[in-house]
Amino acid sequence: MRNLVVLTIAACFLTTAAMAVDLELSVESGGSNSVTVQPGDPVSYSVEGTLINTSNRGLALVGFDLELVEAGSGTQAGSLAQTSTPAGMGNFAVPDGLNNPAGYGGTDDAGKLLQVGGAQNTINNTVDCVIDDDCPGASNLCIDLECTASAPFPVGTVIENIGHTQETLATGTLTAPGTDGTYMLKLTDAFANVIASDQSGSDLYWATESVDPANIAVTNLTITVSASGGCETGAITWNNPMDGTVDARQPRDINNGAVLQGIDTFDVSGPASADNLDCWTLCETVVEGTANSIGSIVDDGRGNYTITLNRRISPGAVTTLTYTPDAGAASTGTFTSLPADSSADGVSNTADILSLIDCCLNAVCTPAWGVYSCDIDQSAVVNTADILRLIDLLNGAGQFVQPWNLASPVTTGCP
């Protein structure tokens, strides 16, 4: 391990024998250990750390190296800029903590980053000092009962329990290689100390214990570079509306049948390539007007996406959205427009009036699909007006097509 001077001393200082503390380190982009990008794209990443064994008072020191390599050969594939120091790790960086002279973000070694990280002020150094004949040239490496010596740093207060829950240890951005292929942001030479479980901060220093490198589990970030963008393996989670939703609300304006009012926006979570339109297909069992399609997918940078259709889903039909990765199983969300079916039992009839009253207004039961089962008039408020609008739907009032005893459509022809 290529430990530089400052952190080497910090790792050894007041450290007792190794204990079985497991530390997980994960290199991620958007919460995932894999990402698909185009050549030359910026790739934001983070290093996440979690202490699996919490029989301690949290991290005292942590460090590691980072390198961008080809996945197969291990050949260096690009240069890395220094990482940033997350707010939660401020006490591990100068002046509150200790890090190497180049900074908490690592030391550049021909494009690699060495010893990203730092240490807390477990030696309880302060800015107060006495330099006299008994302690000439005092430094923070000198602790003696006969003299008090200190340095300008570290001067921070030790924060306990760092790493007991997932902690972001470093963040950065790299430039994807310019050639299609599979690459890896690789974390190596990790080391860490934890604050001993019996420490309270009342002593001269905080005793620490080393984490056995053999008990540090590392998951690297796989970066697939594809000029076409690629479709990364991973499942889609349908957040709103949920997969299987039956939309019982009015599907069109009661006074203008040409104005559709059904679902047209979907909030999902998924792999980094879920914003690639080429990875998606849309199917409808009934097409009203022009064929529908996905208009846009917006990524919030945290693995969440907003899908917007070019028009609202067709009334009385099933619409499916399917994400198909380059490898692995596809993910399909199924959404049904069945006006007045508040009970979501697959048939629109007078029983839905009772379901609306009991589940949506009186809370006797739970609505099958939340707002999609209750806000029949699409006013954004659930009240007695929704009962009247459901009756309008059943009777075919205004521009509504009467759905009396209309059965739920099937997904014939769609995934």
Structure overview:
With 415 residues, the chain is mainly beta. The protein folds into two domains: 5-225, Immunoglobulin-like (Sandwich); 237-395, Immunoglobulin-like (Sandwich), CATH 2.60.40. It has four helices and 22 strands. The strands form five sheets. Strands 1, 3, 5, 6, 7, 9, 10 and 12 form an eight-stranded mixed beta sheet that branches. A four-stranded mixed beta sheet has the order 8-4-2-11, with no helix packed on it. A four-stranded antiparallel beta sheet has the order 13-17-20-19, with no helix packed on it. The longest helix is centred in the C-terminal third of the chain and has 11 residues, at 351-361. It is elongated, with a radius of gyration of 30 Å. Residues 1-5 and 137-147 have low confidence and may be disordered.
